[in-house]
Amino acid sequence: MISLDSPGWLGLILVIIPLIYIRHLWKGRGGTVTFAFTNWRGGGFSNPMTIQRFFSGFMTILFWIGTVLLIIAMAGPVRVQRERVFLSRGVDIMFVLDVSPSMAAQDQPGITRLQTAKQTIRDFVRRRQNDPVGLAVFGTQAGLKVPPTTDYQVFHQALEDTHIREMGDGTAIGMGLALANLHLNPSSAQDKVIILLTDGENNSGEITPEAAAGISQEQGIRLYTVGIGSTREVPLEFTDPQTGRIFRGIAQDSFDPGLLAELAGSTGGRYFEAASSGALEAAFQSIDSLERSDARVRIQVRKEPLHRPIMLVGMILVMAGILLPRFILGALV
Q1: Could you say which DSSP state residue 111 is in?
Q2: The Cα angle at residue 107 between residues 171 and 246, in degrees rounded to 5
Q3: Would the keyword Transmembrane helix be found if you checked this record's keyword annotation (predicted)?
């Protein structure tokens, strides 16, 4: 937004308007007009348009435009930017996302479980303010995509670059939770949360889900678990990110609701089942309402001065309007 620090200077524009009228337009201001005798053609005198007159008028216009620009520069134009500065830390959140092949199952035609999960996570993060968010994924192994950060563009790009089977064919829930614990533990945030999304049972990794949840409990991290997908057989299709090979089949595996509920309950969190995209969105809305922090915000105003280029252009036009007619018209006479 453009603003003026000293708008009172603009009042000078109201002063120069009558000056322009009196100086250049008022017919009854008096004075003597001298015509060249060669302009006389036996009748009244005429004052035809010449190059000199056109140039002189053009320079006069530039002079007054420059004068107006100088007045605007004195009014102190600035570009104002208002930024919200958070004075308190939000809730640190780590998403732990299953990327095993079964997440390519299509509970709804044309959209996989992973795509549904990614879109729901995007919508959830957009509703949060000042909450550092991170992402870990797991298959046979677990990997960190992005540590907790408030650079949401980086987070969304990492989420977009998440693909089926990039961590192998297994389901190492415990490894994914342990990795999230590792990156939340150093945080100084008062509230730390893990949101686990999976459609299968733990069948890989050296760390069990129960052991990882125990660490979460010791570190004061709340764990929310979400079981994704229906229990019926659904089609499955995905492209291997390394070979480009297309896999098709039927998904029959399902998550363990008892285990997921136990993991969440042991840390003070909650367990949700999401057989559809609507149910998944409802689960995340519940988590959103449960994990709220009182953010203290200050509005910081930053001003970028804009008067220098305006003043420079104004001075050039004023000087051109004064000096050029004298030199150029003097040479033409």
Answers
A1: B
A2: 65
A3: yes
Q: How many CB atoms lie within 10 A of CB 266?
A: 14
Give which of 173, 254, 235, 245 is closest to 209, Cα–Cα.
173
User: Does pTM top 0.70 for this prediction?
Assistant: no
pLDDT tens profile 216-274: 999 999 999 999 988 788 888 888 777 778 888 887 768 899 999 999 999 999 999 99
Residue reference for tokens 């229906």: 230
Q: Please report, in angstroms and rounded to a whole number, the separation of the first and last CA atoms in the chain.
A: 50
- Closest C-alpha among 174, 183, 319, 329 to residue 256: 174
Helix (H) or strand (E) holding 276: none
Separation of alpha carbons 151 and 221, rounded Å: 22
Q: Please, are residues 148 and 113 in contact by the beta-carbon 8 Å criterion? A: no
Whole-number Å distance between alpha carbons of 207 and 231 = 26
Say how far apart CA 166 and CA 241 lie, in whole Å. Answer: 7
CA distance 29 to 166: 87
Distance of alpha carbon 278 from alpha carbon 215, whole angstroms: 32
Query: What's the residue count for the chain?
Result: 333
